[in-house]
Amino acid sequence: MTSNHLERSSDEGDAQTSRWSPSEALGLSATASLAIAQPLFEQLTRTPEFFVARGADVQDQLLLVLVLGFAVPALLALPSIVTRWLRPALGPAAFQLTTAVLAFAIGLRIHRLLGWNDWLLIATAAIAAGVFALVRHSRNAGLFLSYLAPALIAVPALFWFHPDTARARASETGNAVVHETTATAPIVVLLFDEWSATSVLSANGGIDHRRFPNLARVAGSGTWFSNFFSSTGRTLNAIPALLSGQDPNEGLLPTLADYPENLFTLVGGSYDLYATEPVTRLCPEYLNRTTTNHQGLLARSKQLLSDLRWIWLHQVAPASIRQRLPPISDRWSDFGDDLDQDRDINTSDDFLRTAMANIRSDRTAPVANFIDHLQQVRPRSLHFGHFLLPHRPWNLLANGHRYEDGAPGLPGYTDTGWSSDKAAVGRSIERYLEQVALVDKIIGDVVDTLKAAGMYDDTLLLIASDHGVTFQEGFEVRQLTQTTAGELLASPLLIKPPGGRAARTDERVLATADLLPLLAQELGIAIPWRSGAPDLRPTSRSTIPIVSDGIEEDAIDAADMAAGRDRARNEILNHVRETAYGTAFQSGPHSDLVGIQARSITQRPSTASVIIEGDELYGDFKPERHTTLHFVRGSLEGTASLEGRIDLAITLGGQIVRTVTATGEGSFNRSFHTFLPYGFLAEGANELEVFVIHERPDGIELEHAQRERANAELRLDADGRVTSILFGDQELPVDGRFQGAVNATIVEASGRVTGWAFSRITRRPADRILVFQRGRLLTSVHEALDLPWLVAAMGTPYRGAGFQSDFHANLVSEIQQVGVQVFAISEGRAGELQPTYPSVVARSALSESRVDGTPFEWLVVGDGSRIPIVDSRLEAGIDLVRRRDLRWVVFGWAADSETKRGAETVVAFKNGRYFSSFTPDVARPNLATNGLVRSGLEAFGFRGSIATEDWPDPRSGDFEFIAVSDGIAQRIPIPEPEE
């Protein structure tokens, strides 16, 4: 009796420990709060500017507390609780696993805080393993975790009541007093971001009139302050200091509540205010007449929560993983966008080191909005614009159009800052200068708008910058040190007073806090919160006050600052040269050749040939459409006799405009790309040529690289069919000896031709691929790629049968309209490869065969080629719904999970024969919302219908759905239908 009673009691005890308990739920939620919410709240309390720059208010913070502080911890604890409830026997295991995972997350945070090396991650894993073992063998683990329950209240409470976050949600108006003034002149203030004075200076220290004519135009009737320096490299400290007349203060937020005395309140009682503030909140909102499109609470919150995942990973991930995360130091939101494009920015704990909001959006749109409002300029109106230019990313031409070079990051920039590769860093300097030229264009547009309104002469126009950048080796772009201060903090300042004046240069050494007094002096008004008459001029400083966490000095000697600025100016001038085509960049090898006519240099017989991507577009260049052609890209052949480095000269109209070093070795795989600044390519015809530079003891020789396209020609019969290809000195017969497929599409910023080709006769991959458009050679591909899926399906002979070639995105529209012709070459013969999509739709069927004795399925397309059906990287699915009108509605999606591109087509087969097809080009946002696809793939949905008389029973197996992309196919499972 006693024994049975004890056994029964034990069983009841085990069952009881398997059931859900409130203390265990509280414990798990509290642990989740410490693992997830606490690192995020800690970071946000350190950087309350995060909310200011995003325009977040008290509602945003409250929602953040509710979701992050309570909802997320509860959701993380929910699986264990539900398992306890539904399957008590599995309850302990679910509880133990959840606890161990959360312990590992907390361990990662500890690992991060202690600064351990990555190899000490084993210690973090040991912490999690120890917790797992403790929980597994302890009958009171749930009770122990319940002692952490106060964290559920403490973690969000510490965030909500922290003084800094409280200030971030403080009343907008604070204690601001709006003043009236006797001034009447219109005021236009242009503040640019990351614009260094070193970028616009000539050798004598003045404005370079030729490179920046609009800035010089304003200086012709105003004052150029040649020794103006910012006191900080942080926008959120610099902008309030500029507008308030105070030295920067890192303890204050860039809000009206913290800076109630500023330019807007100085004149707001008498002036109409039009303010464009992307990252500050200094203008009283009720006085701001600029129309802005504010996001709703749900939209802001969705973006906020999306961005917090990246912030959390930066707080807990080890260094090796953080390097592969999207940076969070170059913007305020959308951290996950354009991951590769953003690797030019070093990450740091202080992700608010640079003040950016939506940096990937169209940065010229606020300028256009500003100029629209500027057309309403009149007496007693203040138009203020802070523009995120020429701030990174440096991917805009001087006309404002975006270009792409197809390469991630900035040339010469590494995880530790600028490298010692002067040529690579020089290419980044050139891209920066191109964007500075855009700033000059904006200034010109503002001047033209004011003149058109008849208000230019009467307007006070102030042009300035918050700070600059540095290109010094070993330093980050915005790293403020004693060494970089002169370059980083030298800022342009130009003031044209009402009525204008004779051009003059003011050589006083001035700092950020001097800007508002200068402006007040020009208006003839006093600053109520400062003592002194309105004509009190700031005196020249002997030192510049400095505010930065990264530098111990409170001030730097003005002479040292000027010396650093002048060194940086001279370094930039070493990269520019004036030619007949305007300003040329010369960071490449033999830069002394830039600006010289190629015919004036000794020539040698030509043995090399070149293919220039998008070649035919240079002959009919359209600035509005062919932006990417500013990156000249191509490949060389006939260089097998050359050893080591191959340097090239690029000419336009016979004049050398750029030099560049080719990459690769031997006669194949030699490629090059270089940047042409805006203005070099004229609308219409451009004669662009490439020369190989040869060094001789007695000087330089040039070898003209002949265009390979001139030696590649399609021969047609009377019916327009290609019978042969004239390639070099060979005529290659075209037959059907190749199997394979080809696809032309867009990947990121450029076009791409991909596919595979295999000779049925030689049983070997093709030796070369030629891509034609309109009968003209676009590119020649001779790089063999291994496609693992193809080798797995077809066997080892197919190793190296793949190919890939990028081309200018400007060609995409042409290709979409006209298409491309792709030919494979092997042993003196050629065969045309058919594009996948048209072939499938035209005529297709399913078949089976054996490859190396293994059964294999194929999609047989129109030209007789076979596309293998494999388990590929495509993500695809179908929802099947029966309608009352006797039809099946097919909802689906199909996309490539690696390239983030939709499949070319989805084909429906009935009894192994082609029935119909669907194109995945329908946006289905609900797919991402419901977690069915990865973010970014929801744009590739499709929809169609099939009559029930053709398909009586979806479970019969009569129908099959096949997704096709890049010469491969994948079956899509048919689900149970919904009524």
Description:
- The protein has 979 residues and is of the alpha+beta class.
- It has a 7-stranded mixed beta sheet with strand order 3-4-1-7-8-2-9, with helices on both faces. The chain has a 5-stranded mixed beta sheet with strand order 14-21-20-17-18, with no helix packed on it. A 4-stranded mixed beta sheet has the order 19-16-15-22.
- The longest helix has 31 residues, at 422-452.
- Mean pLDDT is 79; it is low at 1-18, 327-361 and 837-843.
Descriptive labels:
5-stranded mixed sheet; 7-stranded mixed sheet; alpha+beta; 29% helix; 979 residues
Low-confidence stretches: 1-18, 327-361, 837-843
Backbone shape: globular
How many beta-strand elements? 43
Q: Report the end-to-end length measured between terminal Cα atoms.
A: 59 Å
Q: From the alpha-carbon coordinates, what is the Rg to the nearest angstrom?
A: 33 Å
Helical content class? 25-40%
Please state the structural category: alpha+beta
List the helices and strands and how they pair.
Layout: H1 2-18, H2 22-46, H3 49-54, H4 58-86, H5 91-114, H6 121-137, H7 141-146, H8 151-160, H9 163-168, E1 187-192, H10 213-219, E2 223-229, H11 235-244, H12 263-267, E3 272-276, H13 297-316, H14 319-322, H15 365-374, E4 381-387, E5 413-414, E6 417-418, H16 422-452, E7 460-465, H17 485-489, E8 493-496, E9 504-511, H18 515-523, E10 543-545, E11 555-557, H19 558-573, E12 576-579, E13 582-585, E14 602-604, E15 609-612, H20 615-618, E16 631-637, E17 647-652, E18 655-661, E19 670-675, E20 688-696, E21 699-704, E22 706-707, E23 712-716, E24 722-727, E25 730-733, E26 738-747, E27 750-759, E28 768-773, E29 776-781, H21 788-794, E30 802-807, H22 812-818, E31 821-826, E32 829-833, H23 836-842, E33 845-851, E34 854-860, E35 866-868, E36 874-883, E37 887-896, E38 901-902, E39 905-910, E40 913-918, H24 926-929, E41 941-947, E42 959-965, E43 968-972
Parallel strand pairs: 1-4, 1-7, 2-9, 3-4, 14-21, 15-22
Antiparallel strand pairs: 2-8, 5-6, 7-8, 10-11, 12-13, 15-16, 16-19, 17-18, 17-20, 20-21, 23-24, 24-25, 26-27, 27-30, 28-29, 28-31, 31-32, 33-34, 34-35, 36-37, 37-38, 37-41, 39-40, 39-42, 42-43
